Amino acid sequence: TSIGRPRLTSIIPNTTINDTSQVVTIANPGLQPQEADNYDLSLEYYFEPIGLFSVGVFAKDVRNFIFSDTSGIVGSGANNGFDGNYEGYQITTSANGGFAKYRGFELSYQQQFTFLPGFLGGLGVNMSFTRLETEGNYGSATGTTKVAGFRPKTANLGISYRRSKYDIRLQGNWVDTFQRNVNNNPSLVTYEIPHIRTSAKFGYTLASRVTLYVNWDNINPVEVHFTYRS
Predict the structure, then answer these.
(1) What residues does 184 pair with on adjacent strands?
(2) Could you read off the pLDDT of 75-104 as tens digits, one per residue?
(3) Residue 2's beta-bridge partner residues?
(4) What is the pLDDT of residue 100?
(5) Sign of the CA dihedral 153, 222, 92, 65?
(6) Of 30, 31, 24, which is closest to residue 6 (Cα–Cα)?
(7) What is the pLDDT of residues 116-159, one digit of tens each?
(8) Edge-to-edge strands of the sheet including 15-18?
């Protein structure tokens, strides 16, 4: 079992206005923690000299799951809650849903190629792939639908080199299209398109207690793009 508490910024009373995108973001002090029952089953195979292949399946049943609600619209008139301002702006807030179910599997492989001759013995690789399906009830007329914010497909690939005083690592992460928000109007549901993020790390041991390292994160900066359901 587990519990997930909302971010502090989501529950401290605060309202932010974005005139460019015409969005009013409102914190929700009444936001409750989400609770979950988790089930995991994995099969792992270890092989010489240093390697692992694993297959795992998992299920999670969540109560009061937290999601981003963008279904509100600022009304018209002096009593719209904003002294008559921001008419037609979209209202974004965090809310608790009823229940959600997550089901998925993960494949993982990692290997240090120490059996290779010469400098090649320092090479290593790790990779993984995760497939996830979600189902949530938001307590509205829309009934059961996908849970926003969860990535249905993700993959990771890493290549490393550890030899003598050197430690070099290259890492890439791929994320498939995923739903970002919830709205009763299908045309206002937004999705983020697939993207890849990469990073690199370099380390050099100067002495037994001194290591020089350089980390380069987000090598290819990702611009956030959204697609809309027609």
Answers:
(1) none
(2) 998 889 898 999 999 998 988 888 889 999
(3) 36
(4) 87
(5) positive
(6) 31
(7) 998 889 999 999 999 999 888 876 545 457 787 788 999 999 99
(8) 15-18, 23-26, 90-96, 66-73
Q: Which two tokens stand for residue 177?
A: 């299209």
CB 90 within 8 A of CB 71: no
Residue with tokens 């179910």, as numbered in its chain: 101
| In the predicted structure, residue 162 carries a pLDDT above the cut 80 | yes
pLDDT tens per residue across span 1-35: 999 999 898 899 999 999 998 999 999 999 999 99
- Inter-residue contact 180 to 191 (CB < 8 Å): yes
Supply 138's token pair: 């938001």
Tokens of 182: 């919830």
Q: Is 12 helix (H, G, I), strand (E, B) or coil?
A: coil
Whole-number Å distance between alpha carbons of 138 and 187: 18
SS3 of 177-198: CEECCECCCHHHCEEECCEEEE
Angle made by CA atoms 166, 170, 129, in degrees to the nearest 5: 135
- DSSP code of 165? T
181: tokens are 């928000």
What is the predicted pLDDT for the residue at 219?
87
Look-up: residue for tokens 């790390």? 201
Bridge partner list, 60: 38, 102
Residue 82: partners with Cβ closer than 8 Å, 6 or more residues away: 24, 74
Give the residue carrying structure tokens 């993960």: 106
> What tokens does 185 get?
């109007």
